[in-house]
Write a structure and sequence with these properties.
Blueprint lengths: L1 E2 L3 E6 L2 E6 L4 H12 L7 E4 L6 H6 L4 E4 L11 H10 L5 E2 L11 H10 L1 H9 L3 E2 L8 E9 L4 H11 L5 E4 L1 H6 L1 H9 L3 E4 L12 H19 L7 E2 L8 H9 L3 E3 L3 E2 L8 H11 L5 E5 L6 H16 L3 E2 L2 H7 L7
Parallel strand pairs: 4-5, 7-12, 8-9, 8-14, 8-15, 9-10, 11-12, 13-14
Antiparallel strand pairs: 1-2, 2-3, 5-6
Length: about 325
């Protein structure tokens, strides 16, 4: 399975199949259909630049092998190359456990890279080139949504935000934006912030210059085409919060402001609307950046929790602001 500028390419015994301008649900459904038709079983090979598909496939009961460096080619391998790796070198690939998350098996490596990034993070925060959240910028907080746009749930989130007159930022996956440009336009026309969440939810520290340029550049182009203006797409949220010192410096050199978070609602686990709201309200502090999701799965619980989150924050004396306002409130220089 390969993600491309147009969509998804599936290489299998029957040849190559191309699924264009669609979100991740369609290829997952197609592979589930192929698995049902394959008596000897079906295993899907993806790479770590393709974080949209492996966890949903595993949840669907389809075995998944993941190509990581040094097997992974910068920018992602072709579907044919991944299929060949699955046949010839399965031992060089990581098996994703059933119920595991996308980067299962690499937790210690990711945590070590995050720790090593701390000095660069402090420099960027002090220079006004990064938001990490919770830095005490007065009673101000920002709402952010990842993994959209989604044709059903993103409009519902926008409806709630409009009713409550609440700003928010939407960190979009390029492939989803390609599939749903009308939703991107609605985000922009509503005055909400658009952010870059990469083309295919890639773990960015795995990528070299070519892969990083593809992941960020394609997404910027699609968002700019949908909303008619690429000047506002200057915020980046790295998938999984994955970072390294070199990545942070490169992103800054590209003129992008990295946005992490300090309050994770964990709404992706679908614990119920009350639990989502309670988690946010129990962990918020001045300057918090709150992480929620409008895509990547069933987000009906997020939509249901959002009114309680907004009113609960305001009842506690917090003002919900956009990312520019939160960045400016730190008293540090903003983007030039």
């Amino acid at each position: 399975m390969e993600v491309t500028r147009e969509g998804y390419r599936i290489a299998g015994p029957g040849g190559v199949e191309v699924l264009e301008r669609c979100d991740w649900g369609r290829p997952v459904a197609r592979l589930a259909e192929l698995a049902d038709r394959t008596p000897e079983g079906l295993t899907v090979v993806v790479d770590s630049a393709n974080g949209l598909l492996d966890a949903p496939l595993a949840a669907a009961g389809i075995p998944v092998l993941r190509a990581d460096p040094p097997v992974l080619a910068d920018g992602g391998a072709t579907a044919e190359a991944l299929a060949d790796l699955g046949r010839s070198r399965p031992g060089a690939l990581a098996a994703l456990p059933s119920g595991g998350w996308t980067m299962s098996g690499r937790e210690e490596e990711i945590a070590a890279a995050d720790r090593a990034s701390a000095p660069v993070e402090r420099q960027l925060v002090c220079a006004g080139r990064m938001l990490a959240g919770g830095d005490g910028a007065g009673p101000l907080v920002a709402l952010t949504f990842d993994d959209g746009p989604h044709p059903e749930f993103t409009p519902q989130v926008l409806d709630v935000l409009e009713r409550h007159d609440a700003p928010a930022a939407f960190f979009c996956i390029g492939l989803n934006a390609l599939a749903h440009p009308g939703v991107v336009r609605r985000i922009a026309r509503a005055g909400r912030t658009l952010g870059n969440h990469t083309w295919s939810h890639a773990y960015l520290p795995d990528l070299g210059p070519n892969g990083l340029a593809l992941q960020l550049g394609r997404t910027r182009e699609v968002l700019a085409e949908a909303c008619g203006d690429d000047r506002q797409v200057r915020w980046l949220r790295p998938p999984y919060g994955g970072r390294s010192p070199q990545l942070l410096r490169t992103v800054d050199a590209l003129g992008l402001i990295t946005v992490l978070w300090d309050v994770d609602a964990k709404d992706w686990s679908r614990p119920g609307p009350a639990a989502i709201a309670e988690r946010v309200l129990g962990r918020v502090r001045p300057g918090s950046v709150i992480l929620l999701h409008d895509g990547g799965g069933d987000r009906s619980q997020t939509v249901a929790a959002l009114p309680a989150v907004i009113t609960g924050l305001r009842d506690r004396g917090y003002r919900i602001v956009d990312l520019d306002t939160l960045l400016a409130a730190t008293g540090r220089p903003g983007p030039g």
